[in-house]
Amino acid sequence: MTALGRPEGTVRPRAALHTDAPSIDLSGAWRFRLSPTADAGDFWAADFDDSAWDTLPVPSSWPMHGYGRPAYTNITYPFPLDPPHVPTENPTGDHRRVVDVPAGWAGERVLLRFEGVDSLGRIWVNGAEVGFTQGSRLTHEFDVTAHLRPGESNVVAVRVHQWSAGSYLEDQDMWWLPGIFRGVTLEVRPAGGIDDVFVHAAFDGGRGTLRVDAPAGARLSVPGLGLRDAAVNTDHLLDGVAPWTPETPTLYDATVSTDAETVSLRIGFRTVAVVDGILTANGRRIFFRGVNRHEFHPDLGRVVPLEVVRAELALMKAHHVNAIRTSHYPPHAALLDLCDELGFWVIVENDYETHGFEQNGWRNNPTDDPRWTDALVDRMRRTVERDKNHPCVVMWSLGNEAGVGRNLASMATVAREVDPDRPLHYEGDRSCAHTDVHSRMYATPDEVAEIGAAAGGLPFVLCEYAHAMGNGPGLLTTYRELFERYPRCQGGFVWEWLDHGIRRGNQFAYGGDFGEPVHDGNFVIDGLVFPDRTPSPGLAEVGAVFAPVRLVADGDTLTVRNGYDHRDLTGVTLEWTLAVDGAPVATGTEPAPPLAPGESAALSLPNGAVAPPGAGEAWLTVTALAGGLRVGAGQLRLREAAPRPRRSGRRFAGDTLGPAVFRAGELVALGGLALRGPRLDLWRAPIDNDIFGRDPVAERWRAAGLHRLTHRVVSVASGEGLTVTSRVAPAGSDRAFEATYTWTADDDAVTLALHVEPTGDWDVPLPRAGVALAIPGRCGRVEWFGGGPGEAYVDSDTAALVGRYESTVDALQTPYVRPQENGNRTKVRRAVLTDPAGAGLELLGHPTFELTARRWSTAELTAARHTDDLVPGRDIHLHLDAGHHGLGTAACGPPPAPEAWLKAEPFDLVITFRAL
Ligand code: IPT
Prior knowledge:
It comes from Asanoa iriomotensis. By secondary structure, the chain is mainly beta. Among the domains are: about 20-190, Sandwich (Jelly Rolls); about 545-640, Sandwich (Immunoglobulin-like), CATH 2.60.40.10; about 650-915, Beta-galactosidase, Chain A, domain 5. The chain has a 16-stranded antiparallel β-sheet that branches. It has an eight-stranded parallel β-sheet with strand order 30-29-28-27-26-33-32-31. It has a six-stranded antiparallel β-sheet with strand order 4-3-6-12-9-10, with no helix packed on it. It is globular and about 105 Å long. 1-methylethyl 1-thio-beta-D-galactopyranoside binds next to loops.
């Protein structure tokens, strides 16, 4: 039987090791030539003249350097489904470089190692073909001893084809980006050296069991545990061992040596096991607060510099992410060293996805075709062998979205053969025949609850949930509650960490921007961080929801809960601030009570943390700090605000009511300030969660005409104040909203009391419920007392704390790669927008309103495709809302929860306006 899609000529896969054996890093400038088809002619001879070729850095994704173009598809293959064939149009990059090999390497066995070549690389050394890689994100090593000439210049030539049979196995949702995108090295394998090592380090109640599989005769040392030149291939029982967990990532430096070679290891002791249907580490339930992580960089493609990786892991830690699924292929090997060190659980996924076969009824799916068995087994074996020594690796995953079939069993078998200790994951097979955990993606809260409540069964994880596309995700607290209620619902992995936008000028491109004939638009922009890895508001929400120290108001006390899985609260400091109307009046610091994991206690409030006599809304804010990080925050309202007086007393005369001037029933000036509005406004620029998914609410909004409401002033009645009624309705429909604007004023300010009644059968939720008005663009400074500092919406407001904040209209914007509704500040009591001289507008809520301010209209925001389409106009457009429809996560998952649904029901909004 033909074996399709596998590499040839490689040596046996083995662990990634840190060794003192000599090696040469082949990163740097290579000669490069791109051809449109696979057969570009001979180029591998050592004396081939490549002087006319360009140079290209290795590692690189060549389309990011001006050769060809990136292309994005999610599920659809960008070539006909004609396995194993690929089109004649097969961009092919020929790479050459000269390497001086020291004379001292004579007589040594030498391997040439490739850590990532997308998708197939044919390799020649000094003109002799040594084999080819296939499996883009997998390590391949070739024995080049016979072809190398130590003491001379040697030529390494690599022909990389963008498409290969292997491409059928690599239909992951990401940019198609060919190239040698990870390291290339020449490595000496000394005679009598250590080719491979397998660390088994178990932990049980203070005791570690260590066995290191290595060549017979090698010696093991773990100085921190008193082991010196101990035997390999045998169990060592060790007392006084500290366990490895993501919260306590204790590593022990170790070496395995022979006379010829020393390998350095960092050993973490932990036992991962399924016990009574629960996935446990060191006997305790695991709770995944995870993210899916792709490897992508907005300028470099699949090449992600190590310092960028380190910074992104620090950002994850700061937001209490404790787990990573390497969607959907093994990561750069260095990631796992960092995850050991910093503390993350990692599900390492095989480089395997065949999702596009689903669109063809899964016909000819490689998962169920014996011609592909060898390739799939090879991929799984390479995955497990390379990364088997990492304490962070909690499970292996057979791949993603590859349907079902006999090759799942083959992959599971080889994974278990190589590593019998780690559980297996695969989401695509509902029968779970080959896995140790039950995994689903995007299951609704109801489904999760049903799974949680069912008796027996496997541990349950959501390998993907909370699709973070555009503005969102909502619903994180709903899922957290389920993970906390049902022991077998062991958390999940947010889809996904990063927006894969490609930098173009000062904005980011997405699918279709490179003229791809088939593409999936902005589905590649669905991360918690923007393409340049700056956090989006979704990450702030994740940080607040995942925070291990929970401070929750319960009646008139604040409860602290230790949400760590493996450590108590020793060393956690609580910083408290008492503020009246947002102005701090007292602060202090206390140690957190030393609660064990899962325990809670009412916080005894420190002396002084009581509202001072007088009026004003009083809040106690408590922030938990550990190791320089914020690990929790919560608030308790100590005194409610007294109701604000509505302004009244002035009569409407001429055009004026107190300081306000009206024309045709609409406010046009207040004091010296020109304005237009406020008018009823129900539209928002649809977010991705409104637009995509099974039953996109934005389509229903458009069908209902909510984006094209017209206004008819029905009556203007004056007297004590001014009452304007208006009928607001879309063309072609007899459904409407009746808006009654009741204005009252004193000498200083006007108060609007708006009442809105839908008439007719509005069977759709509303995007927003409020008013819009325009004020002069110079009033760009913003100050508010309310939720902040960041953007928040009704089902994504965990990170927002009530306080006093300052910003600018420009800084209130969230630059979602595809522009959409953004920037809302929630539960605002008071806001002030001023010009540099301090003149402007004060807004006072009765009691609160939602605040959005931007330099473009909602229509412009709705029409924009990229951030550069948004051009500041003359005015500031203010939106003051009684409510918003929730964010949900419907782009791929459930819509907002019923309580976050903005029903078309009567509503009121009361706000006082005062010119400053
Ligand atoms: C799911 C994929 O596993 C993931 O790679 C990504 O494409 C995500 O969707 C969407 O952004 S598959 C989906 C059809 C449930």
